[in-house]
Amino acid sequence: xxxxxxxxxxxxxxxxxxxxxxxxxxxxxxxxxxxxxxxxxxxxxxxxxxxxxxxxxxxxxxxxxxxxxxxxxxxxxxxxxxxxxxxxxxxxxxxxxxxxxxxxxxxxxxxxxxxxxxxxxxxxxxxxxxxxxxxxxxxxxxxxxxxxxxxxxxxxxxxxxxxxxxxxxxxxxxxxxxxxxxxxxxxxxxxxxxxxxxxxxxxxxxxxxxxxxxxxxxxxxxxxxxxxxxxxxxxxxxxxxxxxxxxxxxxxxxxxxxxxxxxxxxxxxxxxxxxxxxxxxxxxxxxxxxxxxxxxxxxxxxxxxxxxxxxxxxxxxxxxxxxxxxxxxxxxxxxxxxxxxxxxxxxx
Length: 348
What we know:
- Helix 6 (245-257) crosses helix 8 (266-287).
- The strands form 3 sheets. A 7-stranded mixed beta sheet has the order 2-1-3-7-5-8-6, sandwiched between helices. Strands 10-11-12 form a 3-stranded antiparallel beta sheet. Strands 4-9 form a two-stranded antiparallel ribbon.
- The termini are far apart.
- The longest helix is centred in the last third of the chain and has 24 residues, at 323-346.
- With 348 residues, it is α/β, with parallel strands linked by helices.
- The radius of gyration is 20 Å and the shape is globular.
- The relative contact order is 0.13.
- It has 10 helices and 12 strands.
């Protein structure tokens, strides 16, 4: 695998630092022009594979913080999905993150994320596809790299999978957060999955995703396009037929009432309750896809539950900007995850 780190104006030092952290890998830092939307064809030198014997090419942005076992995990992932475009990072505050969470709750390593773009922090393509994308004409002048990548993959017939968990993190400054640097839906730097993990079946993307609105923190439904329309749409939250739904809500309320954040701020409590309902809906959807994950899969699931409020409610729950508040809510949502699973397991 050849690895390129794009260095745009102002990012050269970070790109060089990242290359040093990947000591032993086949890495090049590639100078690139600043992002612009004024040209229909954009030069993409970082996407040109530069190692003749490489079968795959990774573009890793300079603000990425790699998993200690990144390269070995990437080789295992590529061996499992050699013909696909792989996104090894999904930000915790995107609609795609909720698809990755459902995959985590179902014990799956992959899911096709929804929407018309991706976050190109750590993306792998087969080498021939990467070379083609580097020189491909962009039919839409205003598209960013993520949109162009996804449109290219679809035109070429490449499957696109997002990984569970992410294999890189990003620096806190990228998303302007004051406390937690964890911008990934799930990132487990102290644990490496077994190589067989990546051989698991991808989760088909649910047509209706329970999500949290990216701006106002309200529970909504993110729904797949119909017919020729390629736009996913935001709809009102749809109630799922859940056995013992009252019992589940009692479990949720009990957990939240134990937090100082919910007791001291009624608006925050309402937002957290809405997020917990989304978590319950996602766990119910995942239950239909297989048994409750254990071992490494269980770690991914619990971390995905923990980051749901941290990524989605930063604008509506002020306490999440503090270290203590974020830690308290993380623990509460891990507890909700565990309690809901106990209820659902009892219904089988």
